[in-house]
Amino acid sequence: MNGRHIAVAITGASGSIYGLRLVQELLAAGCCLSVLVSRAGFAVLKEEHHLDWSGEADLVNVRLRRHFNVEAEQLRYYADSDFHSPLASGSSTASAMVVVPASMGTVARIAAGVSGNLLERAADVMLKEKRPLLMVPRETPLSAIHLENMLKLARLGVSIIPAMPGFYGKPQTVDDLVNFVVGKVLDALAVEHALYQRWGEN
C-alpha cells in the first residue's frame, strides 16, 4: 500500500457509479480509504446498483469490504453521526477528500460551513486545514445558487470536477464515460491510472 489516506463520500445525487469506481481504483492503487455515505446516498446505491448497504456501521463495513474484496486496514466506513471519527479532527484527518457524486444540498451546506453530520464536518476540516477537497457535482441544469456555491468553494481552493466526460477518446460504452470522469479525479489526486486515453495518445 502507498500509505495515502483518502476519504471518499457518496451523497444522494444520481451517479453513485462514480463513487464506486473511484473507491475501486484508489484501493487498487494501494490507498487506505475512509468511506462516508449519506442517508440519501444509501438510497441511490440501492436504486441504481441494487446494493442495500444501509444499517449499523459494523454491518456496513462488512458489506463494503466484501464488495471490494479488501481487509479492514484498507477500508473503513464511518456513520454520519460518528463525530468521534478521525475525519472530524484536523489532527488526524485524511490527506484528501472526494465528494462523489456531490449533491447540490451537500455542496450548499459545505459552502455555508454547516457541519450537521460527519460528511459535512470532514469537508469543513479539509477546508480549515487547507487539504485537498474535490467535489464531483452531477446536477443539471445548474441554478445560479448552485453556481454561486461552487464558485465560493472554488475560491476556497476546492477542486470542482463535474461529471462531464470528454469524447475525443471515442468512448464506446458507459464504462468508458465513467472511467473518464474518475480518471480526472485521480489526476487531481496525483494517482496514476490508465482509465482513459489522453489527448495525443495512440
TrEMBL record:
Q: Which UniProt keywords apply?
A: Flavoprotein, FMN, Prenyltransferase, Transferase
Q: Which organism is it from?
A: Geoanaerobacter pelophilus
Q: Which family does it belong to?
A: Belongs to the UbiX/PAD1 family.
- For this entry, the protein name equals Flavin prenyltransferase UbiX
Residues binding FMN, per UniProt: 12-14, 38, 103-106, 138
EC assignment: the record states: 2.5.1.129
Q: Name one GO molecular function term.
A: carboxy-lyase activity
Q: Which gene encodes it?
A: ubiX
Looking up InterPro entries in the UniProt record yields: Flavin_trans-like, Flavoprotein, UbiX-like
- Stretches assigned to coiled coil: none
Give all residue intervals belonging to the Flavoprotein domain.
Answer: 5-189
What reaction gets catalysed by this protein? dimethylallyl phosphate + FMNH2 = prenylated FMNH2 + phosphate
What the entry lists under SUPFAM superfamilies is as follows: Homo-oligomeric flavin-containing Cys decarboxylases, HFCD
Q: What does this protein do?
A: Flavin prenyltransferase that catalyzes the synthesis of the prenylated FMN cofactor (prenyl-FMN) for 4-hydroxy-3-polyprenylbenzoic acid decarboxylase UbiD. The prenyltransferase is metal-independent and links a dimethylallyl moiety from dimethylallyl monophosphate (DMAP) to the flavin N5 and C6 atoms of FMN.
Q: Name one Pfam family in it.
A: Flavoprotein
Which residues are dimethylallyl phosphate-binding?
Answer: 168, 184
Write down the superkingdom of origin. Answer: Bacteria
